[in-house]
Amino acid sequence: MTNDLAIEASDLTKSYGGTPVLDGIDLQVPRGSLLALLGPNGAGKTTTVRILATVTAADGGVARVAGYDVVAARREVRRRISLTGQDVAVDELQTGFENLTVIGRLRRMSARAARARAAELLALFDLVDAADRRVATYSGGMRRRLDLAAGLVSRPEVLFLDEPTTGLDPLSRHAMWAIIRELTTSGVAVLLTTQHLEEADHLADRIAMLDRGRIIAQGTPDELKRAVAAQRLDIELVDNESFDQVTGHLGRRVLHADRPVLSIEVAIEHDAAEVRTLLDEIDPTRARIARFALQSASLDDVFTALTQQSAGTREMENTHV
Q1: Shortest CA distance to 158 belongs to which of 224, 264, 76?
Q2: pLDDT higher for 312 or 288?
Q3: Does residue 317 register a pLDDT over 70?
Q4: Which member of 32, 74, 81, 118 lies 3.0 to 4.6 Å from 100 by CB, making a disulfide possible if both were Cys?
Q5: Domain 229-319 in CATH 3.30.300
Q6: 5-219 domain in CATH 3.90.1150.10?
Q7: Residue 279: which of 315, 233, 241, 248 has the closest Cα?
Q8: pTM score > 0.85 for this model?
């Protein structure tokens, strides 16, 4: 492992009850960067985090975090990481200040140092006005911010965030994004799991897309978008018959189809000439399309296209078994 890598994993595998959950995962996260793991429920995101955070043992493969093997030097890894899970883990009977101070003392800080660190984090997370209130009175967004603050008391080198903004309103989510970005700027390496594609697009230096325990694509957000399509053509059809004819004709070229509103999205690689050719192909009589618009490709488009490709690959593999 090189000095600039905070996380390095190779060929991680894991099964539960004979069912594969991870199937050869490879990851690299440089220091001071954020890698987002994207995938639907059951893709293997949380299992990957649990292995790297030394909570669960892999069946195979190797991993190093903050320079230490997660199996042979588990104690050293735990001294250098923090894990914030999907559920808030703070004491509702204590105040925000008390929660952070207690964690500092458990981390063997002096009483004075623990109080100073608690005050610093309360300011960072905009919780000063609520510092002396019991956490039971906090809103969901405030509790989530306090939970993340609790994970930073010991100044970790590597931070694991497992869907940290689940359940937050848009304003609280954006506030959390700002804090996470500041952490990476300060040199902390972050591994983030999320189902919010906008979140990954906003925060991630690199993205790894998981589907059924396999990484189906890795790269920067822009690289992944270019790999699928430079742009997206949104088409609205005039009726159900036209919708069926066009979607049937385009097949796997359709990124997304929405029958209730008679709309489809199609990947476009090049320029206006390709758009004109496609429109002539699916609507030669000018009677099927109500309207269309050209949009920039999004991570939603990337994920839909790649999971469709992955499903097709699995289907072919199963056919040849």
Answers
A1: 76
A2: 288
A3: no
A4: 118
A5: no
A6: no
A7: 233
A8: no
Every domain of the chain and the residues it spans: 5-219, 229-319
Give the model's pLDDT for residue 310: 52
Question: According to the model, what pLDDT value does residue 95 have?
Answer: 96
| pLDDT band, residue 236 (cuts 50/70/90) | very high
What share of residues in the chain are helix, strand, coil (percent, to 5)?
45, 30, 30
- Sheet arrangement for strand 263-268: 254-258, 263-268, 231-237, 289-296
Cα dihedral: 153, 67, 72, 15 (round 10)? 80
Q: Is the pLDDT of residue 315 over 60?
A: no
Q: CA dist 166 to 72, 145, 169, 181, Å?
A: 33, 12, 9, 17
Element (H, E) at 6: strand 5-16
- Nearest CA among 267, 299, 306 for reference residue 198: 299
Distance CA 97, CA 121 (A): 9
CA-based Rg of the chain, rounded to a whole angstrom? 23
> Does the pLDDT of residue 202 top 50, yes or no?
yes
DSSP string of 171-189, one letter each residue:
HHHHHHHHHHHHHHHTT-E
Of all helices (H) and strands (E), which one includes residue 281? helix 272-282
**Residue 198 and residue 201: Cα distance in Å, rounded?**
5
pLDDT > 70? residue 308: no
Q: Name the residue among 65, 151, 99, 154 with its Cα closest to residue 164.
A: 151
What's the rounded Cα separation, in Å, for the pair 62 and 52? Answer: 10
What was the pLDDT predicted at 3? 64
